[in-house]
């Protein structure tokens, strides 16, 4: 059970959710868990295939458009449909919504890397067949999405027909009632070419505005005792039919290769054919064996084993698996808020990556984590330009939501105003450096990103009465917008500024040539660096004497408290039921804000302030954002609130599987999935990575027998095993090292288990 997700639903709301849960992806390509043959006509489906970052530019229409509001936004597009396969038992079309279902189950295999659907069906007139679908998106041939269908006739069938098609006439999904999937502009793809060449069905589309092209080149292979073949090319699709007698089993394998002009040059059909040639002798089952091999390696470093709770074990594996399926591995892509599992948030990249998902890859697969940082680096020029557009004289302002670097947020109070994203990105660069000590990275990328983001803070804030203050920004909590001195933003900016000054010093002392190069490239001066240091040291961090907590911002604590206890359940999430201004006027949080700062930068406050702040903000937080529970879980662990830590973790781990936010149909909540990992590793195991080194302060949830996971740190692979009374560390790869366990230094000799009592 813990290595697979099984579903048996056939009702419509559940099927929509299952499309996301059983989606497949490999960082490049994503396919929702649709039925090959579709549902009944009255059922809704978000039938989707996506390529990470493959988008169109759509116009943003404003009632009132003010200076530097973005003109356009980017939108991830649903692309050519290679999923469709219909089966006919004589003249009756197979559908799970007609006839009789003698057996039906479907699974997503987290250790094997494919999804399957097993059906035993009897048609209205009594024709019977067993049908077995398998599908995967390849982890090693990223352009490949393959389907295998086995049909075993059981009774009363004279003729069996399998019809496979590729369709280029595709639109996106729109839900006008939900701002998270409501941008309109559903139809953004035009068909460029549809043809059949030898064994290949070829379809090519182009986007309306960005003029990106995408192609799907498909070949089908059939195993049948004898059959006839026919094909039909229309203006939008290619349909292939295989007809055989009704007595013998038939197996069809469909290999779709997707290419796009962001990565494959201009000749997309040629590029797809080249991939086809490479894999032409590999059977469907052989591909599955390769999937397994890939996953064996993946899980070796990335698995988290929980003994004592099967459901949570399954939940965390499911989350880690989907993170891996969603992460972009090339220079043009990142991880979208919904991964490649749906159209929510239009395929945009947010701070979700740096704060919630990046740490998972950083600690388990640093080379993949580096790719995410390099992708952000490619957006640095756009960020510099954006800073200028909004009126800064210097620095880089990263867009709140984007695909290729342009700001795609139309609502600036909860979008562009979230300046903290620039510090979040800087934070992730610093974390990467602390975990890898990658000096080349520091020289070539990190220094520049830190310097440019530091410049942004200098230009945004100002010194008053000896304190550096930052006015009119929005912190993570989107129910409180455009405020002065948001604690989170100021704390993160402080870290950003001080590290920028530190990195300057590192370059000065060790890499003088590089510093000279950067100095001339960025027109940098020591005076600026002194400013960074000064502003960082004098950063104002709001503190409220009355409550002895960090105020979320200058005005937050003087607002009226929202009466959460008497707010009807159906009014949540509040954002769908109250005007933003109503929300802004109250002390009510959508998500962790100050509490998150206390997690990321715990050394900026004493532990009593952190505890009182947690107690305070917990009572006014709705967790309407899925980015919230996990942070409260991590902090509850730190503060010794064991039950709360566990309860918040449970919500996090099962948020999508149980559709707790009611919108999993629009795609999985990827940041929350990363957050579940954080809740375990930074929460229950108490991991922190600082300049002083790696530290853990483990505390196993009482319900669990044990917890085992691995970490990559300074070229070592370290296994951590937490049991009821003991924690065992083992350096599996690399040299021995000293870490801190519950505040005490211990030396871990390579290859030798080191036991420590709690
Ligand atoms: C959250 C943001 C998040 C975005 C995308 C919003 O609901 O408030 O913090 O970045 O979703 O996941």
Mean pLDDT: 97
**Content-based structural category:** alpha+beta
In CATH, what is the homologous superfamily of the domain at 85-298? Glycoside hydrolase, family 65, N-terminal domain
Number of helices: 18
Radius of gyration: 27 Å
What percent of residues adopt helix (DSSP H or I)?
Answer: 25-40%
Number of strands: 32
Write down the CATH class of the domain at 85-298: Mainly Beta
Give the CATH topology of the domain at 85-298: Beta-galactosidase, Chain A, domain 5
The outline comes out as: globular
**CATH architecture field of the domain at 85-298:** Distorted Sandwich
**Poorly predicted ranges (pLDDT <50, ≥5 residues)?**
none
- Tell me about the largest β-sheet: 9 strands, antiparallel
InterPro entries: 6-hairpin_glycosidase_sf, 6hp_glycosidase-like_sf, Gal_mutarotase_sf_dom, GH65_N, Glyco_hydro_65_C, Glyco_hydro_65_M, Glyco_hydro_65_N, Malt_Pase/Glycosyl_Hdrlase
Family: Belongs to the glycosyl hydrolase 65 family.
Domain Glycoside hydrolase family 65 C-terminal: 687-746
Domain Glycoside hydrolase family 65 central catalytic: 317-677
List keywords for this structure.
single chain; 32% helix; binds beta-D-glucopyranose; 5-stranded antiparallel beta sheet; 32 strands; 758 residues; Glycosyltransferase; alpha+beta; 9-stranded antiparallel beta sheet; Beta-galactosidase, Chain A, domain 5
Question: Your description of this structure?
Answer:
With 758 residues, this protein is α+β, with helices and mostly antiparallel strands. Among the domains are: 85-298, Beta-galactosidase, Chain A, domain 5 (Distorted Sandwich); 410-452 and 464-622, Glycosyltransferase, CATH 1.50.10.10. The chain is 32% helix and 25% strand. The protein is built from 18 helices and 32 strands. Strands 1-9-10-11-12-19-16-15-14 form a 9-stranded antiparallel β-sheet, covered by helices on one side. A 5-stranded antiparallel β-sheet has the order 8-7-13-18-17, with no helix packed on it. A hairpin with a 4-residue loop joins strand 9 and strand 10 (114-122). Helix 10 (487-510) runs antiparallel to helix 12 (526-537). It is globular and about 90 Å long. The two termini are 31 Å apart. Beta-D-glucopyranose binds at residues 337, 345, 350-352, 476, 478, 590-591, 625, 627, 671.
